[in-house]
From TrEMBL:
<dbReference type="InterPro" id="IPR006016">
    <property type="entry name" value="UspA"/>
</dbReference>
<dbReference type="InterPro" id="IPR006015">
    <property type="entry name" value="Universal_stress_UspA"/>
</dbReference>
<keyword id="KW-0963">Cytoplasm</keyword>
<dbReference type="GO" id="GO:0005737">
    <property type="term" value="C:cytoplasm"/>
</dbReference>
<comment type="function">
    <text>Required for resistance to DNA-damaging agents.</text>
</comment>
<feature type="domain" description="UspA">
    <location>
        <begin position="165"/>
        <end position="306"/>
    </location>
</feature>
<comment type="similarity">
    <text>Belongs to the universal stress protein A family.</text>
</comment>
<dbReference type="Pfam" id="PF00582">
    <property type="entry name" value="Usp"/>
</dbReference>
<feature type="domain" description="UspA">
    <location>
        <begin position="5"/>
        <end position="136"/>
    </location>
</feature>
<protein>
    <submittedName>
        <fullName>Universal stress protein</fullName>
    </submittedName>
</protein>
Amino acid sequence: MKRFAHIVYVVDGSFPAPSASLTTAAALAKSHHARLTLLLVNQVPSFSMEVHPLYQQALQQQRDELEKLANSLNLSDSVSVSLRTGKRYVEVIHAVQELNCDLVIKECEDAAWLQHLFGSDDMHLLRKCPTPVWLMKPNQVPKYRNVVAAIDLESDSLEPNQKDKQSLNQRILEIAASISLIDNANLHVINAYDVPQAGFIGLWVGESDKNEQQLYENERRAKRYALDSCLARFKQKVGEETYQYLNPRLHLVQGAAAHEIPKFAQSVNADLVVMGTLARSGIAGVLIGNTAENILYQLNCAVVTLKPEGFVSPILAPSKP
């Protein structure tokens, strides 16, 4: 089971009493015996303001309030604070590298002007942060009841990034299970599959309905086998007792993932969706798959996103000469 060692919680500048998201971050750190860093990022001031005594005084007061917030979490020496200056998502990613963190937790921005839940900094983190990113709703429920693990099954073992997908699926399941155990939430595992060539074959080959149905049945059998194999590996890793306690509910859904996964999340009143952001290999500059991004734009619940192993953030990548 995935154990986090160092969690970064991104604080906004208002310093309210511990929110539900911060309380969740503290509970996760405590249950995993992990360090928790409260990170606050300020915008870059002008030079004249940076050296102004009142600005320095404000920074000190800000640090004092941040430390007061940290002390209220009752995590003893396992919680610390960090103040940085710069673009928020850039500084978060640098902090992840410098502090050797393995999870970022952040409340979603107030993006009422957008049709989707996540704001600009949020999407930058989802695209570019090398560690898992957990974005929570500001008014999220104190305890999760339904956690959804969305996995990408691929029956074609010759595909170049097949091993990446298998590894990513196992990490998705581990993190979803870890969060489910904290709140004793229902764990749903979903895969959406489609046969885009079915319509073409049905158009040009006789007995179109029969042939299309056969194609979908064959694909469903292949995906069911892949799903069972994926869960068998997960069961072997976490153990029989933990697996039976989790009792994951499996869902194999026909249709495009970009449509079916958000629809399913809404149908079960999902509090959280855990998913990967694996783009097709060989496409230069693609940091997040189109399907993953389309799903994210439609979700209205909390989300944890994971990158494939070996992902290098463009923020941290060495610049080309």
